[in-house]
């Protein structure tokens, strides 16, 4: 709500204008924008998803979490997705906030979903869903999950769904939890509490369930006998090398098969290059920058995921945008931005767009 209020306040300002249905890099180049404005900030996010790079990921029944989220949120590009929800077990590959959101939507009671702004077509599809079990699978352990305590708590308290966490997954974490930063400590303690405590009577009798599977790395999406659909995922069991956030998952040589009829890949988003004139690091998926200043391009700035990579929550992105805005103001005061001559702004851009139809 705070985000909505802040955005509304900004959008109502006489100094703020919005122009949609314009593809920068195609309809108008970044160079043309720079000629029309004294400063240009690129904040176009991460519009693509990372791929698994394993056999079978293109089988029917396998979707990216990005596309699935876009489907139930009503994004035009995903409105025709039509995910097959006819199976009982779904596998979500990933342990981030998006993975938990996807699981929550799959298992939420319809009465709860009706109170949200989910699209009518998605609600109708979920009303016919047979999914009653969702496993969230991650390569590393409980101390490396990327979701936050707010999202985990919402999932634990989801009506009609029972959390299934194995106490053995948390054995021996006492010292590591004790020395962990407070947010990580609270998050891990909540997982341990959920794994150990006896569920309430109504929770124990819940028709739906979800759980976290740790130290399992996807190796192949397994096909049905006719080779057309997903029937499960073969995973490699892993051990952790190192500790904390930098711990690496190393295969042990053991594998297991997890049965499911629906696979949702939630292993991260990635930004794409926007314009040949804008530097881009394909390995990191970001625009090379220093505090938001695009390297080698005075007057050009970036913010958000395209600046630092697809991590963090709303407050992270807010602070990141403040950092970029500060850089613009500093350059303005230092004379880096030449404001002695006026620029035409959208008048020039509008003329370019009209000339190109």
Order of helices and strands: HHEEEHEHHHEHEHHHEEEEEEEEEHHH
Oligomer: single chain
Structural class category: alpha/beta
Strand order of the largest sheet: 3-11-4-5-7-6
* CATH class descriptor name of the largest domain: Alpha Beta
- DSSP strand tally: 15
Question: In the CATH hierarchy, what is the superfamily of the largest domain?
Answer: FAD/NAD(P)-binding domain
The major β-sheet equals: 6 strands, parallel
Name the beta content range: 15-25%
CATH architecture assignment of the largest domain: 3-Layer(bba) Sandwich
CATH topology of the largest domain: FAD/NAD(P)-binding domain
Helix content range? 25-40%
Q: In one word, what is the shape?
A: globular
What's the average pLDDT?
A: 93
Helix run count: 13
Rg, Cα atoms, Å? 23 Å
How far apart are the first and last residues' alpha carbons, in Å? Answer: 38 Å
Number of domains: 2
pLDDT below 50 for ≥5 consecutive residues: which ranges?
none
């Amino acid at each position: 709500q705070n985000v909505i209020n802040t955005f509304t306040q900004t959008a109502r300002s006489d100094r703020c204008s919005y122009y949609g249905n314009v593809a920068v890099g195609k309809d108008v180049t970044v160079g043309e924008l720079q000629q029309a404005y004294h400063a240009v900030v690129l904040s176009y996010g991460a519009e693509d998803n990372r791929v698994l790079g394993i056999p079978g990921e293109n089988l029917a029944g396998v979707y990216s979490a990005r596309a699935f989220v876009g489907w139930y949120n009503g994004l035009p590009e995903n409105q025709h997705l039509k995910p097959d929800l006819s199976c009982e077990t779904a596998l979500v590959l990933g342990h981030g906030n998006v993975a938990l959101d996807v699981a929550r939507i799959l298992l939420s009671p319809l009465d709860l979903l009706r109170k949200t702004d989910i699209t009518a077509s998605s609600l109708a599809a979920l009303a016919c869903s047979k999914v009653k079990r969702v496993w969230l699978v991650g390569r590393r352990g409980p101390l490396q999950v990327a979701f936050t305590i707010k999202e985990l708590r919402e999932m634990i308290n989801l009506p009609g769904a029972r959390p299934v966490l194995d106490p053995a997954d948390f054995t021996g974490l006492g010292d590591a939890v004790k020395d962990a930063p407070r947010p990580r400590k609270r998050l891990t303690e909540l997982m341990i509490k959920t794994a150990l405590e006896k569920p309430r009577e109504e929770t124990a009798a819940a028709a739906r369930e979800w759980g976290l599977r740790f130290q399992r790395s996807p190796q192949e999406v397994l096909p049905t006998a006719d080779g057309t659909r997903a029937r499960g995922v073969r995973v490699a069991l892993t051990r952790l090398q190192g500790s904390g956030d930098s711990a690496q998952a190393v295969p042990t040589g053991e594998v297991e098969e997890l049965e499911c009829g629906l696979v949702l890949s939630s292993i991260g988003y990635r930004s794409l290059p926007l314009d040949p004139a804008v530097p881009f690091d394909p390995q990191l998926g970001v625009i090379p920058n220093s505090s938001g200043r695009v390297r080698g391009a005075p007057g050009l700035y970036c913010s958000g995921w395209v600046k630092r990579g697809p991590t963090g929550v709303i407050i992270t992105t807010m602070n990141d945008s403040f950092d970029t805005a500060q850089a613009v103001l500093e350059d303005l005061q230092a004379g880096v931005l030449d404001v002695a001559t006026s620029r035409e702004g959208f008048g020039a851009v509008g003329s370019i767009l009209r000339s190109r139809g």
